[in-house]
## 1
Amino acid sequence: IFTYMARNMEPTRGFHVFMRALPHILEARPKARALIIGGNAVSYGKESKETGGYRAMMEREVGDRVDWDRVHFLGRVPYADYQSVIRVSRCHVYLTVPFVLSWSLLECMSMQATIVASDVAPVREVINHGETGLLVDFFDPEGLARQVAEVLARPGDFAHLGPAARARAVAHYDFDTRCLPEHVKRINSLAPRAKPIALSR
């Protein structure tokens, strides 16, 4: 099982790139199945002019090159279901243009997913290629497909990535020990004469 997730299936989050890679992945790994989480609207970019949105547009583009019985569009799912999907994923694909990093990437790292992601600046802030994940050219669907197929074929060779990704996520982005204290520190620095906010749990 390999996975892709975005709030909505749209170009800003590389949905078109994933779909163009899909035929190559499924051909290389005949028993693989894709689980796709996300709505069929737009969160960040322009709406598709095609009937049925970007999903329908890309389904038409890749057409009969894909065995659709092995591709499962799950739509938007409850949080617990999303976690369950990531836990069974052998390879999780995260794609984005240079834009705000998705919280889902950090969560997938914390769940020890083996991640193949686009090699863009915001992603490089959290993933070091070969250490905490694998980076590929956003504009190279075939390169993405080769990397995903390699992970699916030889998961043991990449088993170190998930634990390392979790360690990085916890060390730098844990809410209680990193993010909340830093937010409080910054808020207090903006109003030095006011009564400082104190952390309490």
## 2
Amino acid sequence: MTEADNSLGKIYFFTNIRNLTGDKITHRWIYKDKVKAEINFNIKGKRWRVWSSKNLWHTWTGQWKVEVLNQHNQVLLTKIFKFGQKDG
């Protein structure tokens, strides 16, 4: 997903993790260069799926970023999406 309209109250982010058993990862939700949430996960298997969600105020429009970080705070993945008013 690259866009979501601001009538949605909650957004979900899913991550499929492979070969990081025993590590920890974090979903970091960022809006206007400010961290709005950090959700930590313990990886307990060779293939592990995790998800986090964020309640978004209808006024928090614009670009959002979700970063997936490893336990050393290194960014493994970044996804950017636009949250705003629905066209039409």
## 3
Amino acid sequence: MKIGIWGGMILVLLCLATTPAFAATEMQPGEWEMTMKTEMPGMPFPIPPMKYKMCLTPEKMVPQQQDPKQECKMLENKVVGSTVSWVMECRDKQGVTRSEGSITYQRESMEGTIHTTIDSKQDGAMEMNQKLSGKRLGACGK
């Protein structure tokens, strides 16, 4: 599997929610640290957890860091209480990636899951499951 596919998948998976979710929760704006643990059946080695720091604001809950070569569309986005759920699909020359996820936010923490199906022309069909957790670190820019 090429690094390009992995990089694109990770960036797409960061596109987790939109502004209405922020308004419906008690989540506090500021700098957040998120940890993503990935399980992928059939991988010859475990995928190490990845950590990201990002500034979340009412206007920009999660950075939209998708690969410019991919065309991504949010097919569903629902907020119920403090839980955001979504379905996103991304297409590029290598294939289609579909992610379904759910995150529950609290004032200064979050937890969620993402199930991703990848239909790659090069590598065929693949699936992965991810667990997300996060905490607020403080104000943005510090």
